[in-house]
Amino acid sequence: MKGLIFSVKKYSIHDGPGIRVTFFMKGCPLSCMWCHNPEGISSFQETVIRTKRIGDREFSNNEEVGKYYTTENIIEILDKEKVFINQSEGGITFSGGEPMMQIEFLREALMTCKSNGYHTAIDTSGYSSAENFKSIIPFTDLFLFDIKHLDEKRHIELTGISNIGILDNYKLLLESGKDIMVRFPVIPGFNDDPDHLERLKQFLTKTKTGSIKKINLLPFHKIGSSKYKRFNIPYRMGSVEPPSGEKMKLMKEFFRETGIKVKIGG
Ligand code: SF4
Q1: Which residue puts its alpha carbon closest to atom 6 of ligand 1?
Q2: Where do the H-state alpha helices sit in 182-242?
Q3: Residue 261 and which of 44, 134, 144, 251 are 20 to 30 A apart at CA?
Q4: For the segment 183-228, what is each residue's pLDDT rounded down to a tens digit?
Q5: What sign results for the dihedral spanned by CA atoms 134, 179, 98, 117?
């Protein structure tokens, strides 16, 4: 079985504990306005034109986005990084896009990585069927679970889909007892108003179990904005500025009231 992957990041320290190898998988059913991985949205291989400027000259070449990997390819990559992974108590993370979109491959890859002794994590929007999540729970050590907005109507406006199934899956994973890190993307003017922050704090406090290892506050940034042109997708966040460091520190203190560890960044 093969999975379509658009990027492999070695020595990753923001996608779970220790040093990890993160595989970014193609395909996402959401269309978050702030997405910084637009190359992960389409489920297909794509060819884009990459332009580089050197001095006053521009050079363009075609770039293939998305390459097929077998689970054996993944293990080969991990085995080469084994020393760093083991010494740092790291592992492998499947991110995207939305890794649950390639559930058959994901399940096989998680199962194979676990049986080879690697700590496994997935970074998910939470959007998939409950059955799909149940099928990978035994092979997944950690879920990095995004909560983008608690209000269904606002969630649809911001991401194109309802959050009802997502929140049901969050509860399902909580009941499973597996480790969870909640990831909240802080998007100024979209989900950081005091009412929503209070509602989110109450929600996290009420649903808290020992499985929740951390809340990651992920400040909005524009690092991926230049990719939009390449993928012919309109960038809708041009007028939004990243939250200040001071604001993020205050938010960190605010969410610490949940009793859960809070970190700014992944
Ligand atoms: S869930 Fe992630 S990958 Fe998908 S559109 Fe949103 S930010 Fe992008």
Answers
A1: 32
A2: 194-207, 225-230
A3: 134
A4: 999 999 999 999 999 999 999 999 999 999 999 999 999 988 888 9
A5: negative
